[in-house]
Design goal:
- The chain has 146 residues and is mainly alpha-helical.
- The protein starts with 11 loop residues before the first helix and ends in a 7-residue tail after the last helix.
- 32% of the residues are buried.
Length: 146
Amino acid sequence: ATPTAPAAVATLADIEAQKKAYLAAYQSFRSEGPAAAIVSMDSFIKQYPDSVFVANAYYWLGEFHLANTPADLDAASAQFNRVIGDYEGSPKVASSYYKLGTIADLKDQRNEARQLMQTVVNRFPDSAEAGLATGYLTANPANVTR
């Protein structure tokens, strides 16, 4: 049997090809809408599962599910949870926690929404999302229903 070669490190050309494919999938949202963008981004992830752009791809997949008509909150949540669980170092983690908080709020799960927003403030205090989360927490104090 022939020994298998170690996985090749992505070359600059590989990364450029991945970037082009990722941006094309992202742009399909603007040109064709969320349903087409979901298909395009899923295809990108299948074609380049180890790409440096995959964490962002999962994040945008979540956004596309939210923008779809009707919005698919569960599918969106699954994508944001994947970013948090599988791509801890990604800059999209803070945004994913914030999006999960907004989804919990939409589902009238106020305690969970507050916990997620507090996580954003605690873990990512200097992020733009922390400012948004603080605004949510101020507008939705604990033990108050609306």
